[in-house]
Amino acid sequence: MKIAIYQIEATRDMEGVLFMGLDTHKKVMGSANIDASIYTKVFEDDITAQDLEDVYHIFNLEKPDCYVGRSLSVSDVVEVIRGTDEVESGFYFCDTIGFSKVLFDASRAAALHGTISASEDIIVWHKVTTRALTDEEKEEYAKRGYRDFEIPEYMFDSKMPEDGQEILVATSWGVGTDVCSVDSDECGNLIGLEERGDWDGVMAWAAMPKYAKEGESGCEA
């Protein structure tokens, strides 16, 4: 398969659609068409992949050394230049769930010069890992009056976001946005998500990149 990847350049994103899903993109832009002029081509080459899920996996977990873009995420556009039996040629928008085929005028996108960034921050993904409660921890919950069904099934064993922090969440369906919600109990912190509710199915999370629109920063144009 031969593909190209296009990503929104934050300095040209005056409407703030970076990392937004297709429905939001259409509402904000007032059109079903994707504005290719705010995108930059960050990759074009042959890769070993059969479908778009393979592409998503590669450009999140096994990125080529020559790749200078961000991890493949919501609002990115993948051009399938030479397809496979699984996916035909065309342009595909990385949505909150899966990919959607779209119209995209690649001639309006900027050519790659150096690197592309959403902000001064690099997107760092944190793998979500858990562990079972120890017998001592279960006993502590029981002593405090928790019934069996109220005791958590697991504890997080990885770095987790702070309460109220806006984050990106990666699942097998793609990348979306959410807000971490932390409730403290007598035995520790109960960490949830405002949109999803819980972390079931979430493979990794990353801090939401921040960037300023034109006129909101002190940087020179």
Label the overall shape.
elongated
Strand tally, please? 12
Structural class estimated from helices and strands: alpha+beta
Give unreliable regions as ranges: 114-121, 211-221
The helix content is: 10-25%
Strand content: 25-35%
* Largest sheet entry: 5 strands, antiparallel
Strand order of the largest sheet: 2-1-3-4-5
Number of helices: 3
Radius of gyration: 20 Å
Gap between N and C termini: 38 Å
Q: What is the ordering of alpha helices and beta strands?
A: EHEHEEEEEHEEEEE
Average pLDDT metric: 83
Quaternary structure annotation: single chain
Main attributes?
disordered C terminus, 3 helices, five-stranded antiparallel beta sheet, 12% helix, 221 residues, alpha+beta
